Amino acid sequence: MSETFSCPINRSAEVYGLFPAVVFPAGTYSYRELNTFVEEIIRYLQDIGAADPRKGRIAVQSGPSVFVLGLIFACWRLGLTVFMAHTRWPPGKIGKTARELDCQILFVDQDNLPSQDPKLRVCLLDERLLPARDTFPKTIEKRYISQDRPAVLLMTSGSTSAPKAACLSYGNLYYNALGSQDVLPVHPEDRWLLSLPLYHVSGISLLLRTFIAGGTVVLPSPGIPLETLLKQEKITHVSLVPSQLVRLLDAAACTSAPWFLKAVLLGGAPAAPGLVRRALKNQIPLYLTYGLTEMGSQVATSPVCEAGEDGDFKAGVLKYRQVKISPDGEVLVRGETLFLGYLKGRELERPFLESGWLPTGDLGSLDSSGCLRIWGRKDNMFICGGENIQPEEIEKALLDTEEVVRAVVVPEGHREYGQVPVAFVVLRDRQNIILPEKFADTLKAALPSYKIPKSYYALPEEFAAEGSKVPRRVLREYLCHKKQALRSIPIAS
What we know:
The chain has helices at 8-15, 31-47, 66-78, 91-100, 170-183, 201-212, 226-232, 242-250, 273-281, 391-399, 437-446, 472-481, and strands at 4-6, 20-24, 27-30, 57-61, 82-84, 103-108, 121-124, 144-146, 150-155, 165-169, 191-193, 216-218, 237-240, 263-266, 286-292, 297-303, 315-316, 321-325, 330-335, 341-344, 347-349, 358-366, 371-377, 382-384, 387-389, 404-414, 418-427, 456-458. With 493 residues, the protein is an alpha/beta fold. The protein has an 8-stranded mixed beta sheet with strand order 3-2-12-11-13-14-15-16, sandwiched between helices. An 8-stranded mixed beta sheet has the order 7-6-4-5-9-10-20-21, sandwiched between helices. Helix 1 (8-15) runs antiparallel to helix 2 (31-47) and helix 2 (31-47) packs across helix 3 (66-78). The N and C termini lie far apart (70 Å).
């Protein structure tokens, strides 16, 4: 029989009662209020005939809102699986994908309604559809969630191949949050800003980390800069990707970290040494993390003082995870947080090796103390004139300059050398149309000549959103078939 866990909102409603559970632009819900709100959504799902997990899954396409948070936990209490769709997907794509993943209902915002489809029911995310709120019950009914039940479907980044729907159980998410607590503790008085989207595992996982500990999840008000949000909401914890941290450090108002900020969890892409040094100088309490969707988010996390001096990631593997390195240097993972598999229609594809290990596609090493260091992606490497090139090394050098805040390096075909590196970048000053001469000098001091990009292009706007991973295969297609649509960025001579 499958083990069950208390729903964290339900349990915290008993233990912490009137402590704030979620802060959103329109107000605040205590844990008791949020628990009652989740129960209202359960009744709503039952009323519309969507509470039976045998009938299919629930798809959601929306930005963060208290309704979406409540809907996720209501589905989990009912044993339903939630597919969190990318908010930038057009209506046609979300409708098609929801059908392929056997979703019975798609919840969307008013602005993104797909065309009528007899095989897919579409519902608006509108709190006015819910029944009137009951008075707080005197006793709180205990609610449990099955450990092995599929809880969420998230699309992998698809940076080198087509995205896949990774299926995570509630136990995967729960143990990921529990292991994180040992290194990155959350307390009832803490406030974690939901700064990453809920269609990323990093967004879903921070909900569990916070609610399990009785902390507060803060939903950002649209249009307010990150540095303002941190101070206004007295944020203690925030998850960022490197480009977000660059913007935060560049903000005129951010001369040093607010005194109440306890942790900035930095992941999603390699952190350049210069960025780490800037964060330390500004007294940012930085934690570097390595993780992946298939492991429920974090695999290894440490305070920045434990990072390698050369800026490469190095951190201790968290509890409930196991890591080993294959003979060819690939990172293999397994443990309580390892996902159920990739969903294809009604079947799960389980891409595991003998003894349950999952190949990550990342190259890395473990030192004598068990700390993990990541070097780059196995399938990103290419050969230029007989020399092996790992794009991540070039990207790190680009990010260590003053001009670049995001960088993706891909190979382009070359008659003489076979392939040469080409860089797609987002500049700190996005109005710039030319890189200064000193930029070239900085790269020459950091890289051998064959690793210096031969061309620079502005990262296409569709990939420029902070927090999103860029599919390298698509950028390579741009170079082959859509080069005329790219904006070239020359270097001053």
